[in-house]
Amino acid sequence: MVAAFLRSASPYVTIAQAKTSSGDRLHLMGDLVKNSFHTDFKQGGSLTFLLKDPEGATVTVRHLGERPANMGEATQVVAIGGMQGSEFVSKELLLKCPSKYEGKRVRAPSPSDRCR
């Protein structure tokens, strides 16, 4: 059972680590470079985009699954897959999108707001 767990464990890696690692279950997390994604119909409708990791490196990600509906709203992406040549090829994407509550500030009540 321990051996099965270790085989299925999938580490988070940077782009530099992904380039020197083998396997197709690596988790590559980073910021989605805005306006860099498009559907490549020559490659079977795959989605490609640029991902920038926390160390500042960028890589092209080719996603072979369905394009997530909220891809245009995503700010961060975890691509699960592995390197194939100079691209990171993923079969699964996890997206982080800004919350509708993010960035809204609520003004603290002032003494003049109190009911009399």
UniProtKB/TrEMBL annotation:
One of its GO terms (cellular component) is plasma membrane. One of its GO terms (biological process) is protein-heme linkage. Keywords: Cytochrome c-type biogenesis, Heme, Iron, Membrane, Metal-binding. InterPro entries: CcmE, CcmE-like_sf, NA-bd_OB-fold. It is found in: Membrane. Pfam families: CcmE. The keyword Iron applies. This is Putative cytochrome c-type biogenesis protein CcmE. It comes from Fimbriimonas ginsengisoli Gsoil 348.
